[in-house]
Amino acid sequence: MYRFQLVLMLVPYLAGLALLYVVPALLAAGVAFTDFDALSPPRWIGLDNFRRMLQDDEFWNGLRASVVFVVLAVPLRVAGALGLALLLYRSCRGVTFARAAVYLPTVVPDVAYALLWLHIFNPLYGPLNGLMVLFTGSFDGTVPGSARPTGWLLDPTAAQIAVVVMLAWTIGEGFVLLMAALQDVPRELHESAAIDGAGAWQRFSLLTLPLLAPFLLLLAIRSTIWSFQANFVAAVIVTRGGPYYATSYLPYWIYLNAAEYQRFGYAAAMMLVMLVATGLIVALQVGASQRWRAASVA
Amino acid sequence: MRSASIPDRRSLDGFGLGTGAEAWRGAVVRAVAMACAAAIFILPLVWMFSASLRPPGLPPPIRFELWPPEPTLANYSAIFGLLPLGRYALNSLTVVTAAVPLTLLTASWAGFAMAQLPRRVRGPLVAVSVMSLLVPVMSLWLTRFLVFKWLGVLDSLLALIVPAALGSSPFYVLILYWAFTRIPAELFEAARVDGCGAVRIWWSIGLPLVRPALTAVGVLSFVYYWSSFVDPMLYLSDQANYTLPVALRTLQQLHPSRWSLLMAGCVVVTLPVLLVFGLAQRHFLQEHRGSGWLGR
Amino acid sequence: MRHGSRARLSIALALLIASVGCAPGADRFPSSAATTPAPTSAAAVPTQAKPAAAPANPDAAAPKPASSAAAGRPSGEISYWAFGDAEELAIFEAVVEGYRRHNADVTVKLNIVPNQNEFMTKLSASFTAGAGPDVFLINYRRYGQYAEKNVLEPLEGRLAASSSLRKDQFFEIPLKAFTWNGTLQCIPQNQSSLVVYYNRDVFEKYGVALPRESWRWRDFLDTARALTKDTDGDGGIDLHGLAAEPTIIRAAPFIWQRGGRLVDDEEKPTRITMDDPKTKEALRFFVDLGATHRVSPNEAEYKAEGPDSRFMRGKAAMTLNSRRAVPELRTIKGFTWDVAAPPSDAESATTLHSDAYCLSAASGNKAAAWEFIEYAIGLEGQQITARLGRTVPSLKDVATSPAFLDPGQAPANSKLFLELAPKLKLLPILAEWPAIERFMNEEIEAAFFGTRSFDEAIETANRKSNEQLKR
Prior knowledge:
The complex is a heterotrimer.
Chain A: H1 2-31, E1 34-35, E2 43-44, H2 48-54, H3 57-88, H4 95-107, H5 110-120, H6 127-136, H7 156-168, H8 172-184, H9 187-195, H10 200-229, H11 232-239, H12 250-260, H13 264-297
Helix pairs in contact in A: 1-13, 3-7, 3-8, 3-10, 3-12, 4-8, 5-11, 8-10, 10-13, 11-12, 12-13
Chain B: H1 21-52, H2 74-82, H3 85-116, H4 119-134, H5 138-151, H6 158-165, H7 170-181, H8 185-193, H9 198-209, H10 211-227, H11 230-235, H12 244-254, H13 259-285
Chain C: H1 2-20, E1 76-83, H2 86-102, E2 106-113, H3 116-128, E3 135-139, H4 144-148, H5 156-161, H6 172-177, E4 179-180, E5 183-184, E6 187-188, E7 192-193, E8 195-199, H7 200-205, H8 217-226, E9 240-243, H9 248-258, H10 277-291, H11 299-304, H12 307-312, E10 316-321, H13 326-329, E11 337-340, E12 350-353, E13 355-359, H14 366-377, H15 379-386, H16 396-399, H17 402-405, H18 415-419, E14 424-425, H19 433-448, H20 454-469
Parallel strand pairs in C: 1-2, 1-3, 9-10, 12-14
Antiparallel strand pairs in C: 3-13, 4-5, 6-13, 7-12, 8-10, 8-11
Helix pairs in contact in C: 2-15, 9-10, 10-19, 19-20
């Protein structure tokens, strides 16, 4: 009876999983093997979409840009969240304000956040440029000694870094997670270790870190998934895939194919590939953490 | 050994290990680091606000200005004149008022239930939930469109609220599931023995113990429903139902180079979220000795 | 206790049922439930005039018969979708209101999406789900795939049978843009051309001759150079002769004027021909405006502030744009401005910008939808639309009337748009055009700002564009 009541409580969520995730995902997976432009019924073409993908420069460019982004962003985000959590997890005066400040950028709505950074990165009138002028004293859009005008959105490499930077401000979620995890570490353990003569670094690496490990892994996984998928708002609003395709991440290219070119079959095929790529990286992370845990126990 | 209840201010490194010069230095360094971190993260928002106060007629800024020369609220009245922002705000509010409680309800139900079901049921459920999170949201737009059409909720605000009635997102369910698993099973057993039904146990015993997680889900879902742009844009066909983020995009089409106007729009869209966050943050940004938001 | 928990459970079940059970998702015929659209209420689910067209259904194109079948005036509900910003929204609403006075039995549900790309997404998603609009506005550059897939109800016959409109009352070239396989698919609402907007006061201040009607490329370049100045002696350029957007729709007139082509066959394009020698010459001229002569803002300046904004602040003497810019430019107070024809070369030509009203083949209430289109595209509807100033009417009578030519409003030389009408040329109408356009724009921009060499850029653009066509 009790079990049945529990199941009933589960029903809305199960319905949601089915209707909003499983069914659409399966349909989308099916569409990946068709040629579908939403105006006529899907036409089965088997693996053609995937063959086309292999020869599509934009796809490879997008994949490369996305992987580079993930490789840059995930360690930064995890390390940043950890650093901030270590800094702010203990109570003291003003820490509440600092914690709120760190979390604040995450609550800004996506579109507003992107527009804000479009303004910040403005090559001539943005506050970032203003800061540079303050330090270098020159204003003509150039950094002294360089021939080309700089501007985060003008240079391909700078633009990629700009997107990483822009999204670095949103590590609040991970910070909260790690902070809660740190607070769960019993104080007694720290205190007895300190009394036994362990220094701060030893306490951290031998005591705190292993206890944090599962949360770090969770954060790494979540950051990876998020980094693979979420930078496309930035690509659409801030960089528009530029300059010259530098920030045309895979989700952006998929978005263009689905939303603007109406090639839903092709887009679905690329999403399948993206899903597999994400899954692979996550599996690698889990595997690496298992190995590390086994090694540290031994 | 000092007990855990002595406030930290007495022990500068937090562990009651002394008040020597080194500890003082450590404290100062920490304070400075804290202030810097806070300043860095607040800065973009300050810029957003200050840019929104810039008078529209001025030439664009070429020096660093933290505060505009003649701050004015003219941009705010301008955007309210350009777009029916009041109506859009009302729509956003409607969606959020319906969706957040619904999410808390259904997600906590699901988390509660999952935490108590036997492992062989729980395991696959958690696995499916995690895998659902892996699926890129973009791939679901079109097919969800079909689902909503089948449900008949296209073209009204219901299309935005229905996901809330179904748990909103596996992420919230997982957070609450995790929180519920930290509650010792004995508490639930005792209540069952007393003859309470599942819902009663959920309400009187489960919920109070997961309050931080609940608050977190509340804030996260508020932010999600308030900021969602793609869903209203895709699923709503009536102008009058549009929400604030869509208005922002409209504003951007209208005046792509009028930054002060756009920033004013951004402030209007962001402010309510900041307010809600400000009110709720004590519940999940504070330390919780004994039962952190992960439960204990 | 038990009572309380049971109550909660039943609420929960009720919610569940409400969200899933009572939604047959059935096709409702528009006339059977002419409810007025519910504005902001979250609880109201207005009935939809959406016929079924499930993607797997082979006869997706077959429309369901409208059961209104009322002899005489059409009635019921139709949906009308378009894209536009807040100002255009007011005009769309005015047209709908005007139509309502014309026939109060038909309710028009209006939906405006701000951004054209998002509009296209929504349009196609809706068509898939069988929830597409009855009437929609679409740009000729994007309508290729819709025409190809028989989603549109050709309007040639209806126009011929119309008692209030005749085909010859419309300008020819936009009509051609929306003709597919010899049949008119949609009826154009506007026919703007690319023109040169210039700041009269700046010309007079520096004693530079105003653009003449038949000015040539050389004159254009000389004018732009004469008006590119460093006015405060700090080494940076404060006034640019031209604020150009380095995109293919701005460069296209130059291509046609030199006698070049973008595609091998205008009627049935199969190949992009950016490597055609004359095309390359023309593009070289356009690209050199930025890369060599620097009469246009550099990359940082361009990305910091768009050409229209620059022109409006008086920082650019000329800019290239279509009629769309007019309402915004009318807010300029500091100087007078006007329009001039684009400079000519071997020929004179300019780009067509045109949107049209289309009727969906799957519409459930074609009679009402056509009547609405007739109104919107007719005298009254076009006069309302002309008020904003953003479009050049496609109906000759309205275009030659004060509704459009209004001498009291800038630009004084509005009749230029009419004079240019015979010189309009179409961009290629291809299903793959949006993808091709993006590749072309990236390369033209790179060459314009000097980050890629011209030859490489053109070669890449041509190659990538043709790859799209091979799909």
